[in-house]
Amino acid sequence: DMKKACIMMKNAKHVALFGVGDAYLAGLAFQASMTRTGTNYIVTPVYGEQGHLAKTLHPDDCALLLSYSGSTQSTIDNAKSLKKRKIPTICITANASSELAKICDISLFLPAKEDKGHRIAAFFSRASMEYYLNVMYSYLYVLDYDKHIKEIDNKLNIDRRGASCALAFGLEMPYIVVPLGFGLIFQGIVAKNLTE
User: Which of 139-174 are b and which e, b meaning 16 or more Cβ less than 10 Å from the residue's Cβ?
Assistant: First the structure.
């Protein structure tokens, strides 16, 4: 399902992030990573405005809903609103039987190691959410790998073929010219093959 989710996000015109608390903070870090690749993911910085964000999306957009428990009411309400408007939805949660998981088109599941009512801090849920989003970021990066490499080449003004030839020549030249160590072995192999 990770592959389907990433392809859905890659093909969407806009991707909006929804969540509350630590899940939302993980989503903001994910959004920052995506922005650095030149992809704009939409978030609302104002608490309580996610409902309005949900109403601005269109069927060629996509929504990523984050809730470790899967029971955060505002996130469920946004999922219902998005579903009514036929916006493709992806959720990341640890609760496979949650209402959120049932509403969303694609559900990705985290390990369920924290009980919402018995935790001191959201350490595990936040760490697992961030890890999952980092894996998602990596997959999305690979889907557009050639585009990203071309952008890096353009920024650095490097021709990869030329850099590869220079690197290969730089590594092989000592073996070809200097008859010591590996160079002696290399020259011996070349001489033997030329005489055969």
Answer: bbbebeeeeeeeeeeeeeeeeeeeeeeeeeeeeeee
Provide the 10 A C-beta neighbour count for residue 57. 23
Helices (H), the chain: 2-11, 21-36, 50-56, 73-84, 99-103, 123-143, 145-156, 160-177, 182-195
Rg (CA), the chain: 25
Beta strand 41-42 pairing with 15-19: parallel
Residue 87 C-beta-side C-alpha neighbours within 13 Å: 27
Q: State the Cα–Cα distance between residues 80 and 99, nearest whole angstrom.
A: 10
pLDDT tens digits along 41-76:
899 888 789 999 999 999 999 999 999 999 999 999
